[in-house]
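Technical note accompanying the year-one report. For the benefit of new consortium partners, we illustrate the data format agreed upon in the data management plan: each record pairs a sequence with a structure-token string. No post-processing was applied to the example shown here.
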Amino acid sequence: MVEAGGVEGVAALPGVLERLPADRRIVAVLRGEQVDMRDIPSPPRQPAKLKAAAGYLLEDELAEAVDELHIAISTGAEGVRAYAISKPLMRSWADAFAEAGVTLAEMSVDYALIGGSSGVCVIAANRDRIIAARGGAGFAAELPLAEIVAPAFLAAAGEAAIVSYGAHEHLGRWATAPVERRPLAHEADLVSLFGANLGGKDGRVNFLSGEFSPKRTYTVELGAWRRPAALAAGLASGLVLLGGASGLRDWRVAERYETTAEILHKSAFPTFEGGDIRGHVRGLLASGAKTAGFLDMTARLTAGLEAHEGVSIERIRFDAGRGQYTFSIKSASDAGIEAFRTGLAAFGVE
């Protein structure tokens, strides 16, 4: 079953996601108005040179500094394509999803997910918008602009078949060739169309790359392995409370522990206003609070971070009532994330 609807903003998504299975895969589909796309003729084989070529091409065509563009590349049977989106806009999306606690598996763009190809030109209606794709080209626009752009877009499709999803009336004005009409009665049908193309094997653009590489979120059930408070206190003293940090030979390591401890403490105790986090945590341990599980887990997590320089913690959530410790990590590569995840096993985190 496919459902579709609207929410007031990304912050409302957690309430929707609660109804979905735990193994869900969340994909964000950007509006095509936010993304520009170009074919790369004779693309270089080396990834670095390919990225540079894409940057130069888009910078020249968009008349915008490449430093302000986030560029993603797709490679498939239809060739190599470069997509560009404003970095500030991309950061705003990334921050919004992170703030809502939503972990994305992928981020693409609507006109890359409606099935256009060199042999098929697809036009889909989305309320007062038009989404269009063919071969190495695609666009999305509100109707007034689409009225201007679409006729030339269709003419450039040449002998390609034309498929309409709910845009029959408009294509009657724009197309001179026969049109295959397919229903698109509800927004859920458009979501289904996206889903069908997300399930395909051909390469498609994913904007979660580079600076915006995907973050992984893990939840550990503390109750299953929680150690005695004395052990938690011992681990915390060495790693979180930094009792021995000043004695470390490498001051950079000590500084890193200090910073990590402050971040983790702030995440778990956002209402704490004092400056002595060591005293605060010692007091909680002495009172027998349920914080021991948090400290034990944090100690293990901090130790794991020390062995993996390329991994950073993005967000931590601690639910003492449920005994759940959830953390999001970020790395420049999936391999870095998997290595960190595997390394945590050495510290008792499965």
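Partners are asked to follow this layout when depositing records. The chain has eleven helices and 13 strands.
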